[in-house]
Known about the structure:
globular, alpha/beta, 15 strands, two-stranded antiparallel sheet
Amino acid sequence: MRSTPVAAAALEVREDNQLVAVADEEEDSFETIDKLTAQGINAGDVKKLQDAGIHTCNGLIMQTKKSLTAIKGLSEAKVDKILEAAEKIVQVGYITGNEALHKRKSVIHITTGSQLLDDLLGGGIETMAITEAFGEFRTGKTQLAHTLCVATQLPLGLHGANGKVAYIDTEGTFRPDRIVAIAERFGLDPTAALDNIVYARAYTHEHQYNLLIAIAAKMTEEPFRLLIVDSITSLFRVDFSGRGELAERQQKLAQMLSRLIKIAEEFNVAVFLTNQVIADPGGGTFVADPKKPAGGHVLAHASTVRLMFRKGKGEQRICKVIDSPSLPESEAVFQIAPGGITDAKD
């Protein structure tokens, strides 16, 4: 039975103007893996799938037969039977455009804290997608991540997502005290807001990948709506060096990004990635700031929405849409304030 988060349920205002939680259950967007037993699949085989990090029928369908037969104790014949059972529970194959439109109605847009930035993004950071923000240090990427940690917990009526947050930190930049200040700005109880964030510090790219497997188990039990990786490429740049390891690095990065988009679609979660920039030798002499995002084409193709952050005057920052299937290439100015990301002040 999934639990309702303390501050991420529907909220109401108390007499002292504090927002407090009211129990509010939402329908799951996935089918749990234990439903396979009703289709004649052995409970022991279901347990093997769970131990391998597969917790929903939706996630099972997203696996290749090669990866499933690599699980100890699952033969090719067993895998065929398991996949056949899963396809009876989860719809696969073609759907009409109208059905796709109806499915898109479950997408939630999470406020960034800035109305101008929300407008640029068509309402905010969206679920079922990967949003990547790249830029130099101090351009507001991590500050937006912290603001989203709180904004996600707001009810839908306040442009939140009514859910919990998972934060994978690869650079040691997560600051709980920032969450306290941002929660106070949004009128949430800081202690409850922090309780609704699960945090993990990753030290290697393998550890980072294993944390994604672990969070999938939590997402089947509790209503998560945001997964943050800050930053996505830093550990790959440390663990792999030189051109000799570039191919392996990009292959491992592609596997991680594939896992992230599957999580986004499987659990109706917004995935927010921060990314570093690197010097671009091919940028040319006449380019004022020849830098490009790390990760190459693998990351460029995996990101649904790609945002470039740069510094403005004072605490102002500029966000530009670089790539999106639905948003125009435009930009907006926002500001970093004590209570998180907000509209820029003139």
